[in-house]
Each structure stands twice: as C-alpha cells, then as structure tokens.
Design goal:
The relative contact order is 0.12. α6 (148-167) packs antiparallel against α11 (275-289). The longest helix is centred in the middle third of the chain and has 36 residues, at 438-473. A hairpin with a 6-residue loop joins β8 and β9 (603-605). The protein folds into five domains: 1-54, no CATH class; 72-94 and 316-480, Multidrug efflux transporter AcrB transmembrane domain (Multidrug efflux transporter AcrB transmembrane fold), CATH 1.20.1640.10; 125-300, no CATH class; 484-519 and 767-906, Multidrug efflux transporter AcrB transmembrane domain (Multidrug efflux transporter AcrB transmembrane fold, Up-down Bundle); 559-735, no CATH class. It starts with 10 loop residues before the first helix and ends with a helix. The strands form six sheets. Strands 7, 10, 15, 16 and 17 form a five-stranded antiparallel β-sheet that branches. By secondary structure, the chain is an alpha+beta fold.
Amino acid sequence: MTLILSSRPSFFNTFIGMERAFDKPGPFEALHAKQNRESHQTYPKFYIGRFWGRSMSGIDAMTNRIAETFERLSGPILLVSFFLTALLSSFLVPLPEFTTDLESFAPDSDADEAKERIEEEIGTTPRLIYIDVRPSVGDDQVPNVLEMQALHQLEADLERVEALSNLSGGFIASQINAAEVLQRFLDDRNYSGGISDFEDWKEMLEVVLQEEECGDAVESDERTIATAAFASSAMLHSDLDYSPICDWLSSGEGNPTPSASSTLWLIEMKGDLSKEERQENAKKIRDLLEEESILEYGVISDDLISNDINESTLDNLVWLILLAVVVVVFLLAITFRSIIMVVAPLAALLASLVWTYGTMTMIGMRFSVLEIAVAPVVLGLGIDYSIHLQRGYERAKEGSESSAEAWAKSFMELRVALTLAVITTVFAFLANSLSPLPPLKTFGLTLALGVVSAFIASTITVGAFHVFVERTMGSSSNQGLQLDKIAESASDFQRGNAPLVLLSVAVITAGSIVVAMQGLDTSFELTDFLSEDEMEIMEVRNDMYESYDVKAMKSVYIIVEPRQGKSALESEGDLIEALGDLEDSLSRIGGVVVTEAPGTTNEWASYDSIYRIVGDAIKEDPSLGLDFNLETYGDDLAQSDSFVEGDLANAISYLLDNHSIGDQLRGMTWSERTSRHVGLTEDGSAIKYLRIRIDVEADSSAMVDQISQELDAEAVIVSSDLGGRAYAVGDLVTLSNLLSGLISSIVWSTAISLAVSLFVLASLTRRIGQSLLVIMPVGLAGSWVVGSMAVLGINWNVLTIMITALTIGLGIDYSIHVWRRFEANRESGMAIWPAMKDMYANTGSALIMSAGTTICGFMVLLLSPIPVIRDFGIVSSISVAFSLFLALLVLPGLLAAEVRSNRNGG
C-alpha cells in the first residue's frame, strides 16, 4: 500500500522518500511498533512509518539493491577512490601557492578600469619598502644612528642597494635615506665631496656652515619648515636630539653630533612590476642587508608580508592537517574501539581532502590564505557523517546477514537526515559565492566541494571499505562507546526543567544580541595573518610603529580623466580653481595627515598634485610664472590676466623636461615628480589625466570608512567642477571596499543559509511551524556565537564572517538528526519521554561524539601562528559547542511541546 502526501510531484518525495509526521500512529505504524516491542528493538529497524510516495516494500527493495551494489562493487569502488586520489594528488605537487595581496581580497569597483587607463599613460604608483636602521651595539652602549661612522655605513649600503637595483633592471624609483638627505644638504651648500670625507660632525659643519645660527639651517618659509619637521618625525626615532648642533653653532664648543636611536630608510619600488617581481626584489634587498655590519636592518613591505604569509601558510597547512589526523584517530579509537572503524573513515576523509584541494587546483582556482581552514572544517563535518553511519552500522549488524546489508540499513535509516544536512551545509557555504570578495567566493566553493567530497567518502568509500575488509578478514565484534546513563539523565532533566531551560536561553540570547551590537567591529589587515611573537617581520613592524610616525605613509589617490567622449580636460582655468578648492578642503578632513611648523598654528595637508608642483616651481623660479602667465598668492596658484588656454599644459611640458631637483626629501627631479601626477595628450597641448596623492592615517575601520567616504565626496566635487570623471583609489579605499564587502557577506551568507534551510525543511515536512522549530536552535546558536565574539574581543574578519554560515551548516545538521530520531520514535508508537530517551541514547550519543571530534578538529587551529586562523578556531569551536547544546537541550523541549500542543488541538 502506498500513501501519497500530495497530488503534486515532489523531488524530495521521490529521492528521499521521507515519511510524513503524524500526531497519532496509523494501523501500520502501530502493528510495526508492536513487532518492534516484541522483538525488544528500541530503534526503528531501518525506517519506520508512512513514506511519501514509497511503500515499505519499496524501501526493502532499495535497501537490497544498495546491499547488492556494495557486495558486487566494493572492490571497484575502492580502486576508483584510490586512482582518483592519486590523480588529484598529482596536482598538489608542488603544493599550490597562496595569495594574500590586498587587491585579491577587494571587490571590483567602477574606478578600477579608470585606474588602469590612467596608469597606462602616467605609470603605476610606487610600492614602498620600509627599512628600520639601528646601530649594532652592546647592552651597555647608547645607540646613535647619526654618528658619522654609522652614516658612512648607511651611505655604503645605499650604494650597494642601488647597484643591486641596476643589475636587476632598475627596479628602484627613489630612496629616502638619512645619509642621502645629508649628502643633498652638502650639494646644496656647493660642497663637491661627500659625507665620507668627514670623520665627525664638527669637521663637516666647520666646512659647510659659516657664521650661522641654528635657525638659519632651514629656510624661513613656514610650509617648508612644517614639511621638514614632519619628515624628521617620520624618518628619525622619536628620541631625536639635535640640540648639540644648536649649542655648537651658538658657542663653537662641544660635540655637535645629534643623536637618534634609529632612522627609517624608505625605498620606492617601481609600481609597474608584477607582484612576484616585487616580492623577489624585496627579498634580495633583505638578504643583502642581512650581511654582518655595524648597522642592523629590519626590512618590511606589503610584498614581504605576503611572501612570509605564503611561506608560513604552506608549513601550517601540512602540520595542521597532520595534527587534525592525530586528533581524529584518537577520538575515533575511543568512540569505536576497533581498528577498522578508525582506518576506514580516516582514509576516506584524507582522500576527500585530496579530492577537494586537487580539484580546485586542477580547475585553476587561486588559493588564498583562507583555504588553510578548509582541512579541519571538512574533517570535522566528514567525521560527523562517519560517526552517525558507523554507529548505525554497528546496530544494524545484529539483525543483518552481511556487512553490505548492515551498511545499507544504516544509510537508509539516516539518509533523510544526512542528505538534508549535506544539502543545507553546501548551500550555507555556497552563499558566499554571492560575496563581492573574490577569495571568499573561492573559500565558499572549496568548502562546499569539501562537504560533498566528505559525504561521498563517508557513505560510499567507507561502506565499500567495511564490506571489502569484513568479507576478506571477517567481522569485528568490538562495540563502540555507549552513553545510556547520560541519555537517561538528559531525558529526566529535560522532563523536569524544560521551562527553566527555555527561559535561560531567552535571557542569554537577548544579552548576546545587546553585547554584539555594542562590541563587534570589522577589521582587515595583512598583518592579522602574522604572529607578533613568532615572526621577525612583525617585530620590525612593531618597532617601526613605536619609533616613527609611519602611519602617514598610507596614501589615497584621486584620479581624474575626461568625461566620456572627450580626449582631454576642457578648461585649465576651472582645473586650477578646482584643485585649489580641493587643497583647502583636505586639511579639514579627519584622517588626512597635516604638517605644522613648530611654534605656529598653521597647518597644511600632506599631499602632492600638479597644482602644488607648479606652485612650488614658481616659488623657486618666479620667471616660470611670467613665461606661462601663472602666479602665486601665498600658497595659492592662480592665472594672471593674460592667461590663455594651453598655458598650464605648456608649463607642465616645461617641468617634464626639467631634470633639476624638484623634491629635496626624495631627491626627485621636477620631471620625475611631475610625471607621477599628470598625463598630457599626444601633442602635449592639453591635460588628459591627473593623479593627486593624499597622505592619510586611520587606526580603526570607522576611520577607514570615514576617510573613504569624504574623499569619494571630494572626487564627486572635482568631477562636477572640471566636467570630468574623478575617483578615489588606493589601498585605504580598497580596504574600505573590503570592509563593506565583509559586512555584505555576513548579511548575505546568514540570510541565504537560513532561507535555504527553511525552504528545504518546509519542502520535506510541509510544515512551516515545525521547520521553524528545527531552525530556531540554529539561529539562537548564531546569536550566542556573535555575542561570545564580542566578549572575547574577536572582530569580524575574512575568516570569522564565515562563522554564521558555519553555525547554520553544523547546527542544522545536529537539529535534523535530533528531530528525525524523535519523529521516527514517535511514529513507531513511543510516548514522548521514551522517544526522547531513545533519541538521547542513540542520536544524542553520536552527536556528542561527532561534535567532540569536530571541536577538537577546530581546536587544532589554535596551534597556528596565524592570528586570524586562531580566532577562527576559537569561534568555530564555540559554534559547535553551542549548536550541540541547543540541539540537545532546547529542540527536544520544543518538539515535545509541539506534540502536546497538537494533541490538545486535536
């Protein structure tokens, strides 16, 4: 007899054959329940109750077909699994590379294409290498990097680095080095030699300074003084003391040597190099400067950080997998007390990891550092499937004629819960494919593939292994761990304390939401992937942050191009006015670096543009303004009465051909400085592109977002004033887009995962209310996890944003197993509390074992030196624990209440 739930055909009706839940057992269920009681079987033999579109004889036939398939094909299945593993493992030799550059994490934006067009004309922006320079002295000596001998060594090393650059294609665009700045000071004083000519500061000052006071050593222009003061704070240690020079100039006595514990050496590497070339060149510089010297060098750059992350990631991936394997072996041994029960799932799950990583490598997907977390996630979920199937297999062996039949019965008993759990988990991870962040898309796809691989390995490969081994070596009689006493205690606790449990859960949930709303931030830094305690490059970064004002080295660029259909910007007069207004606005924007002359209140934004370059050139050579009908009023550039269109372009052409020094700090010529900020048309008669560099500093995600929004607004104003198209770009804008993408990913992954879970459950049960009951503990677990993150001080980052989807994927798995077992027991004729006790004894014990294994798999991540990986391990472990707790203590009470409610309603 076949009972049909609905006249409409259903995929789930035909594929899964799940039974409809009834409040009261029908005659068939009552009869079968009686048979079960008479045979003392307290669990459904393999599947009990009414089925959607499938009779008991149909289930028997399916079980027999599955058993026959395993009997016949267990050997070929193992061979196919072996050869597939061998094939895909070949793609993992050598191990795949991981990318960590900021651009790879950021979503695409409208400014990207404009940036590419402009960079084709005026080149890419340079990439900075920071070198912390400290004298190598003993603990009983006072370090002074400004001693003449140290400066001689610094000059010699600068020449070595320059020679290295020339031998490698000239990858250095410019350098800022204390020895080089001092050399330019000598050149400016018309001294034909170098600092190596002098043994000490007194000898040098006697040659180049004559009857001057301390204040005469710099120009009287306040803006120049402010720039020099800012440069000293960014390049020399905060303990800088230059008073000995002033004392010597005023008295002519004593030692005029200034002192500073360290100095910062900046190298600008050409921006048109590939990431691999930049990394290789930065490593060459680091290796060169590691040679023994009277100076110690700490080298750091974004490219070196990415390189060191990649190298540590590969090492971590290998030993984290090995540790996870050790944990799995140990826990499986405790759970099953059988070698076969340990070896079978372990071999299959390791194969599933090879299938996952090998497939992604084979199809050409680029791995990010996020993929290091795939291994423990896949192992944890795969072990969950294996434990449920193998415990069902142990029970089914008692009434089966063969291991194949026992495995088929185990699968048929669990097929609804497992299939539903896999579908929901896969969709939870696939939700990240909608993320605007490319690495998160790959991460979600890799995890989804890993879940499918683990499911196939746990059901097919493990089953074939058991059938093949037990057919050739005999069956094992060892019984797995039993938790009957815990089950009885849990059932009694649930019966007497359900209202108190639900009330406590409500209070904790409300508190978690409040704490999360107040305490969670969103952050992303490449250095989040590095250990401050174990990696040298992090020590360099920390020393630099403590010693210099290096935050100012972050830059945002406003790029300007003609409006669509035009070949150049149309009005030079409007351009001068718009850029002047922009300069006035920049100093009022929070986060933009400002310079201030000592003893004054005047401030100037730290930035550079063609407006500033032309103004500086006219100040240095007023005849330039006369030649091109331009003039300056204070710091403002303006057009004279005789100015005509094309005069500004002609002035720029002149500067592009001027190879005298135009930037005293960097040592760049007017030509080099100008070419970074403007592009002319082919005939040089008009301005086609502009690039404006703005130095900024931000110490929080809120500040990053604020700066990005304000500079975006300034770009809109520039666009309107010029009639062109302006965009704000740069690492900080990229970071802002990244943080926005993180928040978007959190919302999307959570919403889609919950929607998919609800849809699948509602499709199977045809009960929205019951579906909501099953999902409710999952949502509660998510809020608890988020609250715990706030309490522990863990922010949203590229890994922890996965936790909501992961909580749903794991939590729904646990809830489905609890619900399915309770429903099956009820339909077999059990009363509420006996049904719950049996659920705890069988499904509950399996969940405790699988959750314990999963938690331990995630806890392995705490041994990683990578901070974000450790955070992910913490929140993932908490997520699993909360999901288990709520599935076993909250959901049963809700299900029992629903049964009583339906009975009363009936």
